[in-house]
Amino acid sequence: MSDHMKIMNEKTGRIVMLAVDHGYFQGPTSGLEEPGKTVEPLLAWCDAVSPTKGVFLRCMPPESKTPVILRASGGNAIVYSDPVELERELSIRSAGLADETAREALRGQIADEIVNRELSNESITVSAAEAARLGVAGVSVSVYVGACYQKESILNLARMSDEGRREGLIVLGITAVGKEMTRDARYLGLATRIAAEHGADVVKTYYCEGFERVVRGCFAPIVIAGGKKVPEREALAFCSRAIDEGAVGVDMGRNIFQSAHPVAMIQAVRAVVHEDLSPDAAYEMFEDLSVAPLTD
Ligand code: R5P
What we know:
By secondary structure, this protein is an alpha/beta fold.
């Protein structure tokens, strides 16, 4: 049995993990243009950090002792360039369409469909043996339930669970949600359970209405991602609800590093996760720290 507790905070059994793996498919994400500069001031407040291999190898402060969960699936990107496929599909679907503007609109629509479909087309990008050699605590693999490459992504996780276990790695299963999916309790309940059934030691998903049902249906501990940047008060509120409803912590990125005050924000998130601070009190803490940030 893999010991996921080794990355949890000793006192609370919960976790604040900083997600900085966004660049693996979306390039220089806002706030992560220079990952080393983003990560360095935040590490003191993290129980773990989840970078890509590149960020881990080149951007983490060399003296950092913060446990690492390394992204180990990828191979996709927010653009997909296969003009042959696009033209083939266009010629089939535009048959009888004489209007050039309509044809161009269809071309754009098909290109979007191809990009969305291909986003679920991931493979393992770091072997368990290499992750172990790099000395990380664990690895993360995305599953795309309901997407075109559902099976392949679930098998990526299953394989990493087998191989990671042999290397003593914690395996974090991530429920990646494509544009065509709804982030509701029904879908996230299905996706998290499937991740757990295929050997994830911890599952990362999103907070949603009815989240307690998602937690109840998933026998692996759940952490939440933050998703797109929202106002700090809102982010702290859904963190707090997630913890109340059974999450063991967060693996949060944009709502921390895209804040105007990332160090204040991560401390407020930490207080919610580890001290059960109410959202109002946490927001007050965020505001206080934003005007007078701690220097040490
Ligand atoms: C996707 O790129 C990654 O799994 C992110 O780590 C995940 O979405 C968490 O980051 P955020 O809190 O920004 O959603």
